[in-house]
């Protein structure tokens, strides 16, 4: 069973460290391409989406995914747009409290998923401008894949921020 306190502390560090100075369509393409490259190398059956201000800027579905992954992406995106936080962070907080998002704020499960894999695109001085989302692996692996590629792209060491 995960250590909720440790996970939540590490996720807070991730969200603080993994911030851009600027973000645009070119950045989305570079980041998405890097994420896709890593997923292909690992033979990870994932769907990847990057959005900014409600617009999809990057999308890729790798072999082994289905339309169900697209729906998970949509539901995870909704959580990032609502909280400006990672879905794994929101989900771990709720699991620690023993409550679902539906019970907590009344949103329908069909439209919101707190499973890991969606991370806010945070720009210093501007806040959350979008999201980067992966769906297809176990939720902790989805989250870790996104964090790993963001850290590499931004030149942030995983040593201090990685989940176990």
How would you characterize this protein structure?
It is globular and about 40 Å long. The chain has helices spanning 4-17, 25-41, 67-83, 87-97, 101-105, 139-154; strands at residues 19-20, 47-52, 55-61, 118-123, 127-135. A hairpin with a 2-residue loop joins β2 and β3. The relative contact order is 0.21. It has a single domain, classed as Haem-degrading domain (Beta-Lactamase), CATH 3.30.450.150. With 164 residues, the protein is an alpha+beta fold. It has a five-stranded mixed β-sheet with strand order 1-4-5-2-3.
User: What is the typical, i.e. mean, pLDDT?
Assistant: 96
- CATH topology category name: Beta-Lactamase
Gross morphology: globular
Give me the Rg, rounded.
15 Å
Classified by CATH, the class is Alpha Beta
Q: Note the beta-strand portion.
A: 15-25%
Q: How does the helix and strand content classify structurally?
A: alpha+beta
Number of separate domains: 1
The major sheet is characterized as:
5 strands, mixed
CATH superfamily: Haem-degrading domain
Q: How do the strands of the widest beta sheet line up side by side?
A: 1-4-5-2-3
Q: Count up the helices.
A: 6
H/E series: HEHEEHHHEEH
Low-confidence stretches: none
Helical content (DSSP H or I, runs of 4+): 40-55%
The number of distinct β-strands equals 5
Per CATH, which architecture? 2-Layer Sandwich
Ends: how far apart? 12 Å
